[in-house]
Amino acid sequence: MSILEIRQLTKNFGGIAAVVDVDMVVEKGDLVGLIGPNGAGKTTLFNLITGVYAPTSGEIVFTPYNKAILLSGKKPWWITRQGFARTFQNIRLFKELSVLDNVRIAMHKDIKYGVFSSILRLPAYYKEEDRVFTKALELLDIVGLKEKQAELAKNLPYGQQRRLEIARALATDPTVLFLDEPAAGMNPQETADLTRLIGELRQRFGLTIILIEHDMSLVMNLCERIYVLDYGRLIAKGSPDEIKNNQKVIEAYLGEEV
Amino acid sequence: MKRWLTLPTLCWCVFAIGLYGLLQLLIEIGVISVVWQITLANIGINVILAVSLNLILGISGQFSLGHAAFMGIGAYAGGIVLKMLPGYTGMLLGALAGLLISALAALVIAVPTLRLRGDYLAIATLGFGEIIRIIINNMKITNGAAGLSNIPAVANLTVIYFTIVLTLIIVCNFKNSAPGRACISIKEDEIASEAMGIPTTRYKVIAFVLGAMLASLAGVLYASSFYVIKPTYFAFAQSINILVIVVFGGMGSMTGSVVAALVLGVINYLLQSLPNERMIVYAVAIILIMVFRPKGLMGNFELSFARLKSLQDIKALPALWKDKILAVLARLKNKRQKEDA
Ligand SMILES: Nc1ncnc2c1ncn2[C@@H]1O[C@H](COP(=O)(O)OP(=O)(O)OP(=O)(O)O)[C@@H](O)[C@H]1O
Ligand SMILES: [Mg+2]
Questions:
Q1: Nearest-by-Cβ selection for A119 from B170, B189, B196
Q2: B12 neighbourhood in chain A, CB within 8 Å
Q3: Where are the domains of chain B?
Q4: ipTM value greater than 0.95
Q5: Any chain B CB within 8 A of the CB of A74?
């Protein structure tokens, strides 16, 4: 059964149609690639799915178990709590905070104490803080940043910032993970490591992953199914081999008829 | 086992009680004169105001320009109840009334404006400050523009001191917890914070309401320390005074707010005989801070004993010092031998 279904999704920014009539069906456990030239509307599609923008029209339906949940028009934090997590193309870490705090903040939804317990330092506070601390370190260990826990996020090198964003997204305990150009700015070695990491995370947490990427080696190695956007419209979908040989895709990337 | 009973907590207890003892001693032996006691009371009240505004501004990143209005609510609630019921009971009841009214008022402004991203709160609180002033100006029970006078002076330095301690405990405990971290993440990046599942509106409202309530406590202390209150005391100018302390000390640093309230309070007092020059010196001090320490006196530094993990750390200090001294001596000896050779 499909876990995410997007129906006739459209978003206009004034006169610009950034996303037009996009239909998408993602199965549980899929690793889907989303590609397309610059300005094709990929990030906008992520922003629509994660609630940063409300769609002009169309529906987004999430079915983690048997019950379908309508996501379009909901607040981002609420959508995250249903099981969606994301990273940002232009890295949006909490820069002035420590690596550890970045992850702990994202664990907010399953913290079982409130303002009173924190002010009065009730036992629940200590119990939960211990649990959160341990789990945050585990996640940092997985992405290889455990030793950097006390470092400020802004002081990490670029590649590690991207990894921290992934750890932070995982901390929300997602079912579906959205990665917006996770390899941007990485060297080939870092990209290869990242490709391996994404595969591992998918296994370990049983994730469904949707990723935007310009690095074709990563996309073609990792993704089983690929969607191609151009000028906001879906122009192709299929396996890596099908996409590589798709006439429309080649035209879109070259800009002219071949 | 009591988890809060840690070495840092003990250090803080010793520090707080020690400082209080020192203060009392200095007053007993006459080092701190009556005039200085009044100045200290004022500074203490400013500490509470600055820390409470810092919770809103420095932790959750929301801009409030009407903080004095909440102080005013507390001051009038305290003043009115105290005049009917002099004594500690009256002060406590007044404080309760102030807390309740300021919390309600804060909710009414916060819920609609904090849903939005951006500085709508600044505009709303600016208007709110004026509204409160006008309401107080026109009510019978508040005695209009003439204000209340002859309020029983129940608060003293001890009461103020321990209210500061209480405020600091509340705000610092909040800051170092999941709700506090959620607020800080909103200040850092609201879009990312929301994407991490944090209901941002809720936490902005919580910080704002908590800050407003603590400010009203400061108001109660003010009314019961200084006999007289007038609507003009709690107008825009006072909100700016509080804001200046927070920015001067460093947004987000409670240590900064305490130090800044002290420094600015003392500068203010020393220059009292020169009312014209005072404003200039005050302004220059603020400009200097902004030029040389744009993040405020303390930046986001926080005084902390957290690095002391166990008594061993304290016991180890003399040995550490001894090693250092020996190392220095050894270096000197080496040098002399070389020179001899
Ligand atoms: N908030 C906005 N307001 C107005 N226009 C926008 C906004 N966000 C995106 N757009 C426009 O929508 C179109 C799609 O942008 P989008 O960022 O989704 O592209 P993209 O496929 O992610 O490109 P890239 O590969 O460069 O990241 C662009 O023309 C962009 O200028
Ligand atoms: Mg993009």
A1: B170
A2: none
A3: 32-296
A4: no
A5: no
